[in-house]
Amino acid sequence: MIRMESYRIGIIGTGFGARVHAPMFQHHDGFEVAAIASVRGNVEAAKEQSGITNVYTDWRKMLDEESLDLVVVASAVFYHKEMVEAIFAKGIHVLCEKPMAFDSTETEDMMAARDKAEKLGLINHEFRFLPARSKIKDILADGRLGSLVHVRYELAHPIYKPLTSKRRGWLGRKEDGGGLLNALGSHAIDSLHWWTGSTFKRLMGQLNIHAPEFMDEQGNVEQRTADDAYQIIGTLNNSTTVTMDLVTAARKTDHTAKLEVYGEKGTLIMYDDQDVLVSMGDGDFEKLDLAEELEMPTGIPQAAARYYNAFKPMMDALYDTLETGHRHPTLATFENGRVTQNVIDAIRESSQEGRRITL
After folding, report:
1. Which positions ≥6 away from 325 have C-beta within 8 Å?
2. pTM confidence score
């Protein structure tokens, strides 16, 4: 049966939601962005960035007045639980930005609301769909590296200048769910779980604040309580050992991401989500062919264009899921979100108490 109308999308959040989600969904034949709701009243900015003129200043009013098939929750983390529960109460599917919630307790309530509504609850881990990450998943799934021994996952985002010259707002406040463990670590943890088919069994974590404050030209000081770097040492349930780290107070780096996977039969290296190399046995590394980059439609804003190769296949998978009623296996679920949230909570506890945590 051919569907004659697109699925109607509502978006809550006028930051990433307006800059990226809105134009991405608008440029997909299977979706129509019916409305956006601004949490902080940034109506004109939301219209300019998203191209959507139907902007609400009250997200609950949007849920009441619009006929929607799915709502994207792209607000600050501390709003997620309240919004997700309200959306499910309306009988609407949810695509929630990562991390899923403020803490693990909230994820349980969100999953209960999903089960009661009998609707989809998905997490926006679009990076799973990048060609390099998909290739890694295929290689580890087919077992060609043998049993995994160790995974090293290093991220370096050289944003020293903006980190020390601009306000971070709620992203710099731990009490509001800010921090880079939430913003970037959540993606890294999810990919690690997805690639290996395993989850953390125990870990030690350290959270750092390399830029603890910012002073503007008027002498006003912003105190940061949320991390801008992390280090993690742990072991997965399949006995693979893991080290992960992130630094952002850096001026320059040769690679923003480097993944090393050591198996009994071979080794895999990934650079910057662009290049994947494999060595079998003691042989030389060979660069693998990846799926070609997608042709981008005209009109995609620059802020969204860098995400296109991840978002487009994710939206295809989402559309197929809505059409068939069968979830595409690469889409991240609320169950995945809960497991990642458990790890994030454990890292915070380990860092605060200075001890190893068993999950």
Report:
1. none
2. 0.95
